[in-house]
Amino acid sequence: MEFDWSVLHDNFTYMLWGRLADGEPGGVLLTLIMAVSAGVLALVLGVAMAALAWRFGGWTRKLLFLWASFIRGIPLIFVIFWLYFLLPVVFGGSIPGPLTVIIALAWFTSAAVMHSTLAGLESLPRGQTEAGIASGMSYSQVLLNVLLPQAWPNLLPSYLGLLISLVKDTSLAFIVNVPELTTVAGQVNNRVQIYPAEIFLFVGLMYYLLCASLAYVAGKSIKRRQALRA
Amino acid sequence: MIWHPDWAGVLTGQPLQWIISGFLTTLYVSMAGSVLATLLVVLLIALRLSQSRLARGAVAAFVSVFRNTPLLVQLLFWYFAAYGALPQSWRFYIGDTHAWAVFPGNIAWLTPEFVCAAWGLGLFTAAFLVEEVQAGLNSVPKGQTEAAISQGFSRKTLLLSILLPQALTNAWQPITGQYLNLMKLSSLATGIGFSELTYQVSQIESYNAHAFEGFAVGTLLYLALGMILGGLMTVFGPKRPQQRPQAEVNDGI
């Protein structure tokens, strides 16, 4: 098999940032935008759900767990399909494709964020909460000023792991034709037809670089944590 | 909004045929992918435990590449690039119709889409499974190895009779999770035009615009399949031995 890398050279900027000059970011740039915004949303949502489960327990917790296992039980594509169908009904107008995918990814990931955060909160000694309450702090103060800062270093590696998954999951936007890296590569492949290996190896390399560097950072933060403990 | 779901538009006639065929295809491709992933994991674990640095490096590279790239991109690569690079006679053969290569429910399995989907899912899942099995192996106390060696067990018996059974028992839950993930991720094969459940459900939308009903049925089928497969793997999976009654320990003293 002979490789002809000129196809990459010709479409390099298109695959990196799409039609940014026309105000429509695409390619790697859109992948990053979607992963980061979905990550922030998922973090807020997931921590909020974990806080609810932590504070109220009982039925609230059971309902949240049921909700999380429902989200985990269906393929991510279906979450995207559902939102494509439901968001316009709820908001009464068309929602831009990238935004729909971001919300779907955030929704999907928030279940995992909730589980890790809750595990992080519950691994702290009970005395921390009790001491906070006894000192006259409210539950939200205990959570924000006592528990989360302590749990954060332990949670960071698992959050980074989820961010890696998010970067990879943005590729599902291909199914609904949002022009991130995979979709853009598919377009180039359909246009030139004869260089699929070059195109998809390049795309794979791009994702690999993004994910492997995140994994490297996550590994470092675990090591630092272990060094602190020792 | 006044809106009435119309289930008959999905659960009769052509759409029903599509859903049944899609469901069976998802089931078959998941099984094919799982078998492939299992075989690969055996090979990868064997390589990883070998003395050769080259073999261990190859496993590390495999795991790193397949875990750090999206499955969809891998599937696109296998379907467009790797499959296209096969000798033409092979492709003609696979693309042909074969009366014998049909699973019950009239699902042909020797098609480019089925082969690429099963292959891609198998390789991707193997990269995740190998880490779960490794975590299981790591969780077995060191004393088990030492005890076995002092009893004169060979390396092979040590691995097969002492370490792996305990490792699989310890890691069974995450291992089950990976197989279930394979089943759910088979939905991505819709991206290479493989007519599994997700593909068939979205086809209904363009056929008679019953998107809501179609997605609902698809969602329920994935949930049900996941619960059934998960349940089966728990029931037939390895179990921790029952706690021994305390009296037995005191017997010898």
Question: What is the element layout, followed by pairings?
Answer:
The complex is a heterodimer of chains A (230) and B (253).
Chain A: H1 6-17, E1 18-19, E2 24-25, H2 27-56, H3 58-73, H4 76-91, H5 97-122, H6 126-134, H7 139-169, H8 181-192, H9 196-229
Chain B: H1 8-11, H2 13-49, H3 53-67, H4 71-82, H5 88-95, E1 102-103, E2 107-108, H6 112-138, H7 142-150, H8 155-170, H9 172-185, H10 197-208, H11 211-236, H12 246-250
Antiparallel strand pairs in B: 1-2
Domain ABC transmembrane type-1 (chain B): 23-233
InterPro entries (chain B): AA_ABC_transptr_permease_3TM, ArtM/GltK/GlnP/TcyL/YhdX-like, MetI-like, MetI-like_sf
Keywords (chain B): Amino-acid transport, Cell inner membrane, Cell membrane, Membrane, Transmembrane, Transmembrane helix, Transport
Task: Kindly list the characteristics that best describe this protein.
heterodimer; A: 230 residues; mainly alpha; MetI-like fold; two-stranded antiparallel ribbon; B: 253 residues; two-stranded antiparallel sheet; 12 helices; 73% helix
Largest sheet, spatial ordering of strands of chain A: 1-2
Number of helices of chain B: 12
Strand and helix order of chain B: HHHHHEEHHHHHHH
End-to-end CA span of chain A: 52 Å
CATH class of chain B: Mainly Alpha
CATH topology of chain A: MetI-like fold
Number-wise, the strands of chain B total: 2
Q: Tell me, what's the shape of chain B?
A: globular
Please give the domain count of chain B. 1
Subcellular location (chain B): Cell inner membrane; Cell membrane
InterPro entries (chain B): AA_ABC_transptr_permease_3TM (IPR010065), ArtM/GltK/GlnP/TcyL/YhdX-like (IPR043429), MetI-like (IPR000515), MetI-like_sf (IPR035906)
Main location (chain B): membrane
Organism (chain B): Rahnella contaminans
